[in-house]
């Protein structure tokens, strides 16, 4: 769990004589790094979640500080600390009002306090938290693999998580270049900002951990209510919008599994969902809504599925290759059979959905029955072919 600005502030406010002037509601945000900032032109290099410290050296330029904080807000920065007393005796009221209205943290620190000491201290705290996260990630990965972890680790995280509660896993499987990987990781940091520590805040307030395992990003949320999932998914769509739009991201959502020692099961089902997402070109797949695909994608030997579909659909696929090539007219026999199943054996329904004359549909269905040596009269007759079509949709 990334460190929040409020956490650092609470631990250092007396040491550095910090005072919040505005934007307190925005302090439940992740702090990714701390920068010295005297020129707003470098803000376009910020990736988000940066905290800035400034002496206000350019405050003599009218409107400079207001432009600075608004640019930082647009860059999704964490906040700003102003070292007052030399270049800036007093922070303008319009800047304070703007920061308060936009929940952008604005703090002041007296001139006698060393900016260098504060930046070094804060960066060390961030790096220490990052080191702790890496150590915890290794142990969480062991739990996800169903392996034992030290008892003292469970005791430690027991203060943050309900170990006997439910865990729901969201798996993100991206495809990116080396350059895009940096952008994706910046988006992952923004995802952490969806969660908050404050009980009365507007963010999602449930314990979570977020780790990277090989090419998979795993978000596990503790005791996460079903009704909150839709809001989280909406925010994830927004945060990773560019990757979703370019079909470079698959999201698989697992069902809630009870107990931290069942994380392996929770991850397994989330991975089944993300596999369906990737193979079938669906950006987001919830295991709870996979239906029969949940069983099919759980099959460890895909050759079994392929041979099953080959055996049932092979005669129709061979016919389509000959009579419904790229130059052929109308839909083939495989898709006619699919429509016949979907429309519950209604010839009129098939005709409407395929824009084909009813007599033509009847002719095709009779031929299909002959090729399959099956009268296709009952649901029991059709069900095996429905499964075979689902297997083809899996694109194995």
Write up this protein.
The chain is an alpha/beta fold. It has helices spanning 5-12, 64-74, 93-101, 115-144, 151-157, 178-192, 226-239, 241-245, 263-280, 292-296, 302-323, 333-342, 347-354, 358-372, 379-393; strands at residues 19-22, 33-36, 50-54, 79-84, 106-110, 166-174, 208-213, 216-222, 249-253, 257-258, 284-286. The strands form two sheets. Strands 6, 7, 8, 9, 10 and 11 form a six-stranded mixed β-sheet that branches. Strands 1-5-4-3-2 form a five-stranded mixed β-sheet, with helices on both faces. The protein has three domains: 5-122, Udp-n-acetylmuramoylalanyl-d-glutamate--2,6- Diaminopimelate Ligase, Chain: A, domain 1, CATH 3.40.1390; 145-296, Alpha-Beta Plaits, CATH 3.30.70.270; 302-393, Arc Repressor Mutant, subunit A. It is elongated, with a radius of gyration of 29 Å. Strand 3, helix 2 (64-74) and strand 4 form a beta-alpha-beta unit. The model has no long low-confidence stretch (mean pLDDT 93). 31% of the residues are buried. Helix content is 48%, strand content 14%.
- CATH topology-level fold name of the largest domain: Alpha-Beta Plaits
What order do the helices and strands follow? HEEEHEHEHHEHEEHHEEHEHHHHHH
Superfamily (CATH H level) name of the largest domain: Reverse transcriptase/Diguanylate cyclase domain
Broad structural category: alpha/beta
Could you tell me the radius of gyration in angstroms? 29 Å
Low-confidence stretches: none
Domains (count)? 3
Mean pLDDT: 93
Shape label: elongated
Q: What kind of sheet is the major sheet?
A: 6 strands, mixed
The CATH architecture of the largest domain can be given as 2-Layer Sandwich
CATH level 1 class label of the largest domain: Alpha Beta
Report how far apart the termini are.
37 Å
Strand content: 5-15%
């Amino acid at each position: 769990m990334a460190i929040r600005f409020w956490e650092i502030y609470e631990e250092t406010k007396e040491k550095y004589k910090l005072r919040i002037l505005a934007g307190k509601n925005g302090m439940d945000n992740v702090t990714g790094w701390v920068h010295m900032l005297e020129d707003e032109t470098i803000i376009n290099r910020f990736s988000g979640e940066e905290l800035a410290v400034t002496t206000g050296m350019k405050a003599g330029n009218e409107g400079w500080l207001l432009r600075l904080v608004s640019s930082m807000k647009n860059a999704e920065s964490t906040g700003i600390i102003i070292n007052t007393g030399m270049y800036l005796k007093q922070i303008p009221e319009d800047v304070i009002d703007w920061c308060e209205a936009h929940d952008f943290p604005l703090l002041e620190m007296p001139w006698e306090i060393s900016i260098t000491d504060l930046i070094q201290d804060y960066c060390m705290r961030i790096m220490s938290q990052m080191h702790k996260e890496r150590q915890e990630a290794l142990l969480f990965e062991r739990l996800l693999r169903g392996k034992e972890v030290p008892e003292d680790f469970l005791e430690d995280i027991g203060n943050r998580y309900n170990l006997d509660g439910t865990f729901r896993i969201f798996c993100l499987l991206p495809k990116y270049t080396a350059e895009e990987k940096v952008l994706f990781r910046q988006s992952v940091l923004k995802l952490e900002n969806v969660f908050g520590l404050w009980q009365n805040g507007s963010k999602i307030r449930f314990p979570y951990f977020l780790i990277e395992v090989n090419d998979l990003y795993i978000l596990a949320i503790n005791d996460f209510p079903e009704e909150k999932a839709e809001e989280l998914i909406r925010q994830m769509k927004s945060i990773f919008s560019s990757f979703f739009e370019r079909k470079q991201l698959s999201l698989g959502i697992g069902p809630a599994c009870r107990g931290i020692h069942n994380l392996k099961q929770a991850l397994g089902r989330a991975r089944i969902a993300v596999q369906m997402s990737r193979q079938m070109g669906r950006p987001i797949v919830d295991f709870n809504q996979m239906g029969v695909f949940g069983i099919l994608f759980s099959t460890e030997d895909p050759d079994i599925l392929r041979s099953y579909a080959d055996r049932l659909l092979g005669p129709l696929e061979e016919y389509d290759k000959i009579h419904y090539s790229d130059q052929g007219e109308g839909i083939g026999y495989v898709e006619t059979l699919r429509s016949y199943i979907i429309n519950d054996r209604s010839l009129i329904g098939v005709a409407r959905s395929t824009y084909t004359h009813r007599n033509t549909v009847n002719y095709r269905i009779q031929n299909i029955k002959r090729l399959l040596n099956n009268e296709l009269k009952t649901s029991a007759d059709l069900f095996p072919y429905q499964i075979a079509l689902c297997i083809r949709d899996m694109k194995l």
